[in-house]
Write a structure and sequence with these properties.
This protein is α+β, with helices and mostly antiparallel strands and 113 residues long. It is 29% helix and 22% strand.
């Protein structure tokens, strides 16, 4: 796991349970690939969002070409695919590029009171 709260995680099949499923805060998981133009558009949005989430949520990026088993486990059929995981389960999911403000709006209901 990364050492700073605002760092973006890059879980592998070996670390996914610890980094995402067992996280004490919600985790926004971005399934992406190098060859995907909307994924490239989304990455800077996530990088700008990460510091705002410190202590409230985390961001994890999963390269579907490097970790197809994780993409399959989440039934990813198009990318970018985003899933909010809280308490070890998916509580929201969508596909396609959305701006930072929309992502934050979807995450906020899952922040701890």
């Amino acid at each position: 796991m990364n050492t700073t709260d605002h760092a973006i995680l890059t879980p592998t099949p070996d670390t996914f349970e610890q980094d995402v499923l067992n996280s004490s805060v919600p985790v926004l998981v971005d399934f992406w690939a190098e060859w995907c133009p909307p994924c490239k558009m989304l990455k800077p949005e996530l990088q700008r969002l990460a510091p705002e989430l410190a202590g409230k949520a985390r961001i994890a990026m999963v390269n579907v070409d490097e970790h197809p088993s994780l993409a399959a486990a989440f039934r990813v059929s198009s990318i970018p695919a985003l899933a909010i995981v809280s308490g070890g389960r998916v509580v929201d999911a969508w596909a396609g590029f959305v701006p930072k403000a929309v992502i934050l709006q979807r995450l906020q209901p899952h922040f701890a009171a």
